[in-house]
Amino acid sequence: MFWSLRDGLGDSLVAAAPYGGPIALLREPLRRSPSTRPQLEIYSASGASIASFPWKSGPVVHLGWSVNDELLCVQEDGTVLIYDLFGSFKRHFSMGQEVVQSQVLEAKVFHSPYGTGVAIVTGSSRFTLATNIEDLKLRRLPEVPGLQGQPSCWAVLTQDRQTKVLVSSGPELYVLDNTSCTAVYPPGLSPQAGSIVHMSVSFSYKYLALFTETGRLWTGFSLPLQLPVCLLTFEPVYLSRCRRPRSQQPSVVLMWDRLLLVVGSSRFPLEDQSVLVGELDGVRIIGSISQELLQEVPLVCQDIFKIASMAPGALLLEAHREYEKSSQKADEYLREIKEQNVLGDAVRQCVEAAAHEYDPDTQKALMRAASFGKCFLTEFSPDQFVTTCRELRVLNAVRESSVGMPLTHTQFKQMTLQVLIDRLVYRQFYPLAIEVCRYLKIPDYQGVSRVLKHWASCKVQQKDLTDEAIARAVCAKVGDSPGVSYSDVAAKAYECGRPELAIKLLDFEARSGEQVPLLLKMKRSQLALSKAVESGDTDLVYTVVTYLKNEMNRGDFFMTLRNQPVALSLYRQFCKLQEPQTLKDLFNQDDDHQELGNFYVTSSYRDKRLEGRLAQLQSAVDEYNKAKNDFAAKATEEEMRLLRFQRKLDDEKGAGLLGLSLQATMEALMSLGLHKQAEQLYRDFRVPDKRYWWLKLTSLAEKEQWEELEKFSKSKKSPIGYLAFVEVCMKNNNRHEAKKYVSKVTPEQKVKAHLAVGDLEGAADAAIERRNESEMGAVLSRCSASDRLLMDKLNRARVATAKK
Amino acid sequence: MAHSARRDSPELPDLSLLKRLVRDQLIYLLEQLPGKKDLFIDSDLMSPLDRIANVSTLKQHEVDKLYKVEHKPIVSISDQICFLIRPRIQTVKWICDVVNADKAAGKFRRYKIIFTPQKFYACEAVLEEQGVFGDVTTDEWAFYLLPLDEDIISLELPEFFRDNFLAGDQRWVRTAGSALHLLHSLFGPFSKVYGIGRCSKMTYESWREQVEQGEQKARHAEIGNVFLIDRDVDFVTPLCSQVVYEGLVDDIFRIKCGCVEFGPEVTSSDKSIKVMLNSQDKVFNEIRNEHFSNVFGFLSQKARNLQTAYDKRRGMDIQQMKTFVSEELKGLKQEHRLLSLHISASESIMKKKTKQDFQELLKTEHCLLEGFEIRECISFIEEHINRQVSMIESLRLLCLLSVTENGLLPKDFKSLKAQYLQSYGADHLLTFSNLRQLGLLVEQQPGETLTVMESKVGKLVNDRTAVKLTDAFSSLAKKSHFRALSKKLNLVPKSDEEYDLRVPRDMAYIFSGAYIPLSCKIIEQVLERDSWTGLEEVTRLINGHEFAVTGADPKSKSDAQRIILVMFLGGCTFSEISALRFLGKERGYKFIVVTTAITNSSRLLEALLDNNV
Fold this sequence. Notes:
The structure holds two protein chains of two kinds. By secondary structure, chain A is of the alpha+beta class. Chain A has 32 helices and 27 strands. Chain A has a four-stranded antiparallel beta sheet, with no helix packed on it. Chain A has a four-stranded antiparallel beta sheet with strand order 5-6-7-8, with no helix packed on it.
């Protein structure tokens, strides 16, 4: 151990995390005088000091480590303070209001499938549990009958995804769960044994040991209480449990002041005051000058190293040893193994044993033996050998006292490589972590990138470097490793109060979608908006727009949008459907009179009342005038006039004109026979003559008012010519009327007119008169066989024309 | 068709894969809500859905009743309701009303909204605002692409055009990008991507982003090159009357989702018949790309062939008769049925289109395209408006006039607009405002007077400076330069030669030899040059945003390199597809057309009307 503890471990609160975790030490936790504050120290498992600072908060009842290597300090008033490995405060939470009065008597930090939990017992003898500190839910457990003050001892159990508290009050033993408090009786433990003063639960929560005041020890399965293993009489100070990995036989370790006893086997003297930490496969004994791991020797190791062992592994090891010495005995040993046909087992044993060994030389010897044995096997998968080699190399590296993670192979397997890397990262051993990842060929995504990400988040917290330098350093290291999100790093920088750095880092972020949320959080809304627009993701733009809408006042909001056309058009689309009034304000702000005019026109159609409609249109006219769009202004004015006119006629004659177009209005009027009014419209709205004539012509023809039509045709010279009359009459199946107009048709259209009324001869005459070859052709094509004479005539005329 | 077609056309990839994918996904989503449920479907999703999963498939997955979303209170009694909708705010609001009404009535139901092809934050915001966010579950059905035929894929997003080009709302760009990404992951990697237009560029970028985020799998490419094109690059083509059979059918009967409903006037009974129009229909497949004037010839030939096939049975013995009945007869009957339908459809088209007005209409269009006798054209349009021939047609001619002439003279602009308003109501003021915004119907800018000035100045100086002047002047005026483009790209073939529509020389045949569609010409030119070099003048006139990116591995000279995916952002017409098919035959390419929706002049303009409030 690196540490030099002046006063030993006496009178301190000590907490050591399992899996070779760090050790926290708080001296004289309950000293209350403000002048001398207790010192909180954090050490690595090898005793290297990581952090040390005076404790300034309230009196601490208990220390514990979370699964993420965070230190939890439970205070008397129920507040739990969380520090990271380097002694910087992270956050705190409370175990409930009522605790403030009743005070925490004892607390325990435990690990469950849900994460790290905290359990406390208060002065009013009530238990409160929080199963996962990341997702804090306090549960107050039911009262324990007859319990006054502090229980004599208690433990937390997690089974079947339920957390329970086992508590003893005098000789009684209770199991507390969410809803009930059940008394339990350990079978075989006589009531005379007295009250239970210590209890301990194994690492896996599977086994339980109870120690009574009369010095009896009961061990068995935890829940339901079963199978007494043995009963002993002792007077221990500390009790811990470990498990023999192979035999599945639980064993209990009891510690007195200077004596350690492993129940059922041996006793060890201790040199000074120590602390026991239960591990998965053993007990860590932490003393003021040394740390030991007490562990049952794994079976394979026993087999190999047992004196005079004839296990195949042992023989193989021996064979290899002889081989190194170039002795022929090697062959003898080897033959012996081969005869039994267990060479494969021998290799496996050696590899397995090597994994469990601590000493690199022994590891090497075993591995060499395995490799030697492997040479004589033909079909033997090298996987196990290779993996073990790699894992051992990693384990040896982390066991190095500068790193200080005394992990056993079993523990390593249990905690997985991922977690190991995390732990290295938590301790800021970034280079080692990266080496490990590369060595074990973990995909970048899960390995190196994760380390880099953590490194970068840590880097941005370095106060002594400039923003520029950090940004450059981060960029240089991280580059574009997959899976490292610059925005996460930037978020971290922002949390540390370095917004400028955060922005610099965000620039490296390739995905704009990731930049935007943080920028919003940093209130860089303009930048966020332009990044969102850049990303081309309209959803993102819309998110920012909605955010801005709520954050800013209207004016600023509109101004911001104005600079971002994409966002603006998106917002317009939204307003059109959801908030038409906002749309109006938006146009107003921009002095976009044209759009305002359009807006009023649109809304005028929604208005059912004529007055409202006219008012809207009037506003539209004003806006169009401002926009210098004379045409639109005039058109709208005319529309208003038309509306008024229609209203008047509707009132007078019930014509049902409102809302029709000018053309439709005139049509309707004519079909109602209101020619005068139609003519009024024609004059008022300066309807082109042609349109009016067409309209009147078709209208009269459809109503078959032939006399009217004739009168009309004579009213003045037709602006649409007279061919139209002919065609319209024909359309309405009145050849007689049609013929009347044929004579009026211009010479160019005569042929057509004749043809239209089906007068072939007339057409032929006209064509011949005009000496127009193509017209003659047109007439010819209409001729049938019966028109022999006509055809001859035409053909002759054609020839004559052609000659000229 | 007597094309000089190349024989070695590559095989098209199997697009039906797209259908299977989305069907499986839909079923998965329906299963997410176990038990009987009623399904409400957005009305415009009905036909696309029908192409993917028919009613019996839906019923198999415990859909009880099907309803159309009608924005009215619902009558369903099921305690589970599933909504299959486009991500539109109005629809979501309606759902909120439904949920809130149920709440008020104390009715408890489970609601699930499936947005397709994706959900928008705005929709969720509405749910939140209306306080029903917790009551509904939402999901996305990534139904991006609907294969309409073996070479046509549609996104079925008609609103893309208006939202993107008129409102400047880019929400669908990502959708288009995702669609491209899907095609890329199924049929890619693409070796070269060309594009022109702002939206194309953004779509390309959105796609690239998605490619970078996802993982890449090395696979055998089935589609080599991609061409992205914005609709606003070429407005002229969709504004022209279509005269190729498929386009004509679309113009007159409106093809919906690859399916047309022939009314009683075609079926010569009181019922109307729905017919799928795709390459499965052998008769249709032969005439779809033909100029209409050839269609009758083809059909009558076909009828004769069919008769011969029927006649075969005359001299048969029993055994032969048996095989004939079991093998051929059914096919013949089917063909017979289709043939008679197409014949009557053609007759119906003939009736409508061979009238005098249509000929004159076409003549006017051709004059506009060529830039001849513009005065006459204007008076034709005037008469067209005055006689109230058709609201959309008049608007179409106005736009065509404006686009080809680079805007109308102020006097014409005002008087034509005024007359149009008189004909169809003052609410079209808003339509005009939309058209102006899109540059479809504009007043001639002072920039035009520049050209006049240019020619005057040009006479005074020598040739070299004149070239410089032209450059300077044309960079001053920004808008469409159809005339210049047409000259540059030879879009209007010389009219003095007779164009034989039976043996098409070039893509102009789809417009009776009067005009080569600009969009297709650009594609042809770029593919020919393998880049945009040499087309700088053209892209400048179009107003740019062209790009060409070489992607994965252009090394393989496989067949896939001759399969070209053309993506029209904002819709494309059947005529353009026919033109591309023709181009493909000529050059040994195969084109796959992806479009946000099939469009034509009426759909294009209807999307811009604003009088539906």
